[in-house]
Amino acid sequence: MKNHKHEKESEAHKIFREKAGHNPRGLLPQTVNPDEETVPGIIHPGSTGVIYCSDRAMANGFSYAAAHEWANLGQGAPEVGDIPDAPPRPQNINIPVDSLEYAPTTGVKALREAVANLYNLTYREGKESQYTYENVCIVPGGRAGLSRLAAFRPPDVLFQSYQVPDYTAYDQVLGAFRRLVPVPTSLDVENNYAMDLNQIKKDIKTQGLQVILASNPRNPTGQVIQGEPLKDLVQLSRDTTTTLILDEFYSWYIYPENEKELGKSISSAAYVEDVNKDSIVIVDGLTKNWRLPGWRVCWVMGPKNLISALSQSGSFLDGGANHPLQLAAIPLLDPAHVQREKISLQKHFKAKRDHVLARLEKLGLKVEIPPSATFYIWLNLEHLPAPLNNGLTFFEELLKEQTIVIPGIFFDINPSHRRNLFNSPCHHFVRLSFGPPLADLDKGLDAMGRVLKKAKKEGMHHFGHSYKPSLDGTHTPINV
Ligand SMILES: Cc1ncc(COP(=O)(O)O)c(C=O)c1O
């Protein structure tokens, strides 16, 4: 099997490029691709990783009705059912008449208070400056929070999503507001994909960077900045008056080796000095930590001024989070309840992580840098024979086995898609999610085993071709 050097030689990559928004942009001569203009004047935003992966899965027979036959290790969501020792899952919600009204665009006051209280208790005990409801804005999901933040930046501000790879929606959220410029940095394997504080300092100085955005813990690498380095990052923001937006959606998904540390979580809130002066903005919510992605109840925390600005952008962007579910969320933020949730979640997800890592190793897919947080495994396939050694082809081959993973290139922040995809630092990677229940994880690992066995026994001529054409129509979203 020929070892391809360029995406043009790969069937999986050709399919990817055919999708609206994935063809290289910005090449000369500048043309408008009519396929991308949905109706006159409205350009297609491009298919997101979520839509692309679900579209390709559906081309291979995936649907909600047939979902149980599939192993979805792509879905960026935790299992939502019962897990051992966790409080019972919410099953009913009250809908008082008042909740039929719009909620304020900053959210229900009692929920804002509950969020502030939880952060003060968890991260700020004994500190003079404490969060109040005025530091909290409830938003209809994490992405809505990010969009609200992105919507009101003045035109000259550089947003830096600091790490490549990082959460896929940053590319699109930032790209939707064209004034914002993501500045990608390289994937640093030697350094455990860690953030380079010295490089950040340089960029702040040389590029006049004013806002930094990063997920911590980090999707998709499963790494986390905590303790002194996190404190230093907060200090850097303070020293340089650079706003730091930390997406802390996986703040409970931490896996300490020592059992006694179970129940701890991480947040930059622990290192903020004055909650109204430090430009630290935290985005989190019920989506991952509370395992309630369908509720769409999340929050942005930061200085009071910021919250009133978020109220404005929310009023024209999304109109606020669901009112009855905000009321239903209040008891879920009770600190004792939260502690039970955290401990059961950490035990359960740690066991799943260890199980998947052990099985991958047996399959010859040892993970170079295992996740110490989140429920993602960033798997390097470089050592496999071509073409299984690239994430997009590995993804297509697993679809034939009713298994979904996410190709690494979706986590590359590559707004114009100009470069040869084979040169992406994420080209050789896939992201596996251990969010789903254990039985699904095993099903997916069995499928990987079958593909690798076939490669070993029958050679590589089976791979890299004969992919099903995409279907048009509605999609079952696979969240990335
Ligand atoms: C880092 C990160 N932030 C935010 C979100 C999304 O949050 P929501 O589904 O509430 O919009 C995700 C979901 O995948 C994520 O991985």
Terminal CA distance: 31 Å
Total separate domains:
2
Uncertain runs:
27-32
CATH class of the largest domain: Alpha Beta
Q: Please tell me the overall pLDDT.
A: 88
Helix percentage: 25-40%
CATH fold-level label of the largest domain: Aspartate Aminotransferase, domain 2
Structural class: alpha/beta
State the CATH superfamily name of the largest domain: Type I PLP-dependent aspartate aminotransferase-like (Major domain)
Protein name: Aminotransferase class I/classII large domain-containing protein
Domain Aminotransferase class I/classII large: 70-437
GO biological process, one term: amino acid metabolic process
Cofactor: pyridoxal 5'-phosphate
Report what the structure shows:
This protein has 480 residues and is an alpha/beta fold. It folds into 2 domains: 7-76 and 375-462, Aspartate Aminotransferase, domain 1 (Alpha-Beta Complex); 97-338, Aspartate Aminotransferase, domain 2 (3-Layer(aba) Sandwich), CATH 3.40.640.10. It is 32% helix and 10% strand. The strands form 4 sheets. It has a 6-stranded mixed beta sheet with strand order 4-9-8-7-6-5, sandwiched between helices. A 3-stranded antiparallel beta sheet has the order 10-13-12, with helices on one face. Strand 6, helix 7 (228-240) and strand 7 form a beta-alpha-beta unit. Helix 4 runs parallel beside helix 5 (169-176) and helix 4 packs across helix 8 (304-317). The relative contact order is 0.19. Residues 27-32 have low confidence and may be disordered. The chain binds pyridoxal-5'-phosphate. Residues 76, 141-143, 167, 215, 219, 247, 249, 285, 287, 293, 298, 479 line the site of pyridoxal-5'-phosphate.
